[in-house]
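Pinned message: reference record for DEDD exonuclease domain-containing protein
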Amino acid sequence: MTHPAYVQGTLDTLLAADGSVDPAARSLADTTFVVLDLETTGGAPDGAGITEIGAVKVRAGERLGEFATLVNPGAPLPPFITVLTGITEAMLRPAPSIETVLPSLLEFLRGAVLVAHNAPYDVGFLKAACARHGYPWPQIRVLDTAALARRALTRDEVPNRKLGTLAHFFRSTVTPTHRALDDAKATVDVLHGLIERLGSFKVQTLGDAIEFAKAVTPAQRRQRHLADGLPHVPGVYLFRAADDRPLYVGKSKDIATRVRSYFTAAEKRARISEMLTAAVRVEAVECAHSLEAEVRELRMIAAHAPPYNRRSKFPERVVWLKLTAEAYPRLSVVRRFADDGATYLGPFTSRRTAELAAAGVYDAVPLRQCNHKLSLRSKTPACALAELGRCPAPCEHEITPEEYDVRAALPFRTATTGDPGPVIAAILGRIDTLSDRQRYEEAAVVRSRLIALLRALIRMQRLDALTRLTEVVAARRDGKGGWEIVVVRRGRLAAAATSPPREHPRPTLDAARLTAETVLGGSGPVPAASAEETERILAWLEQPDTRLVETVGDWVSPVRGAARFAGLLTRAETAASGQDSTVRLSVTDRSDDARSLRL
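Predicted structure (C-alpha cells):
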C-alpha cells in the first residue's frame, strides 16, 4: 500500500512566499504606546463602574494624540470617590455610557501597545466592559509601568512604586491628580524615564521589556547575558559549565529567542534554574531548518548525555522481543537486533513495555512461556500453564514442531511483517470473554497488553517501510521564499539544506546529495539511526505540504498491515486513560465481520 499522504511534484512547482516580523522584536524607540488611565467607582470589574478615561498616544518621545472623556457609570457615585477625584454625579450625568465610548477607544488603541500603571486593574475593567457589551477584546500587548519600576528601581531610589512617587522621581511635568488624563500624562513621563533606565539592563525591544517586567529569579537576571550574540536562525544550543561539560542541549526555530526565554518569568522548572546557575556560556549550532535541528539535538544528547536533559539520553538502551530459532520457539527479551534469521519486534524503550507486549502475544497464541531449551528426543515435565490449557505442552511432546510452528509461531511472525489481524482478534476475543463474565479489571489488564503490542507493531512497520529505502529526497516550503530540502538514507538524515528565496532549488538539492553522508546498509527496522530520529523524519515527511522529489526504492507498507489498526489503538488508549468509559473497540477479520466490545 503506497502512502497516500505525500504530495508528489516536480521541482519546477516549488515556489514560496515571504514571512512577517514579530512585533515583539521591534525596538522600544520604534514602538507606538497608548498610555491609559481609568477612574472608576471602585470595586471589582463587572462591565460597568468606569467614570473617566484618559489616554495619550506616544512614539519615540513624541505625543501623537490624546483621548479623554467622562463616562456615565449608570450607578450612584460613592462619596469617597468624589472626595478622591473631584468628580461629581452632576459631572457624570450628561456623559456618554461606556458602551458608546468603547468603539472610539478601541480604535485609538489599534496597532499600539497599551501602557498603564498597575495595568491589570485598568485592563480588567476594559475587558469586562467589552465582554458585557459584545466587543471582542483586541490582541493587544500590555506593559505595566508599576511592574517595570519594581524591577528597574531599588528601594534606595524610591520608597514605593506609587505613580505619584515615580512621577516625582522622574521629574514629571504633570503631577498625578487622580484625574484620568493627568495621570496618563504623568505615566508617559514615568514610562520614558523607565525606558532610559532599561538600557542599562540591555533591554532594547518591546519583547524584552514585557519579559523584564515579569518576576524572574536572581540567577536568571544575573545570567541573562548568556543569550547575547546568539543567531536568530534554526539550530541547536548547548549550555556549558565552567569545566566545559555540556549541561543541557535544546533546539529551536530561533536560537536567540529560545535561549532568552530561559531568563524570563515563564521558565519555572527547578532543574533548569539549577542549570542556569552552573552555566557559563551557550554555544549555538546553526542548522538549515527545524528538522535538522531536531535530529542534531537528538544526536548531541546521545553523544554527551547532559545531566539536565531527561529524554533521549541513551538511545542504545532499547530492547527487542525475539522469537527464538529452535524446534519450539519462545519469546525472549534481548538487547540487540542480530541478523540471525530470527523474528524480532521492537525496539522497546523499556523491558517492562516489551514484557507487556509479550503478555499480549501469549493472550492470543499458544507460545510457550518457559525458558527451557527443549529437546526433540527427551521430555521435560510440564508446568502449570499446560495443566490450565494455556500451553500446548511441547515439553512433553504433546504437539509436533510443525504443528506448534503453525499454531503458535507463525501468527507472531506474520504479525510483525504483515497482517496482525488474527492476533489482534484473539486478544479482543479474550477481552470480550472477561467482560461478559464481569471481570472488568482483568479485561483492563489485557487491554493494556493490546495497547503495548499494537504500538510496537505499528511503529516497527512504519520504521521498516522507510529504512528499506536507500535514499529519499524531499522538499517543503520554508515560508520565506525558499525550500527546506532533506536527503534521507536508510532512515537517517544524511543532508539538509534550504534553497535561497526566488531561486530554483535544484542546485541546492544537487549540492546536498553530493555532500550527503554515506550510510551503509544494515539489518532491522532501524539499521542506521535511532528509532526516535527516524520517527522525527517520518513526521516531517508525512506533512501534507511535503513533496517527495526522488526516491530510490518503493516506499510501501503491507496492505493488511498494522497501520490499519491505528484507529483501534487510539480508541484503546482513550479508554485506558479514562477519558471515555463508553469506548468500543472493534476489529475486522478476514470475513469483514466486526467484533465489538464495550470497555
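Pinned by admin. Summary line: The chain has 20 helices and 18 strands.
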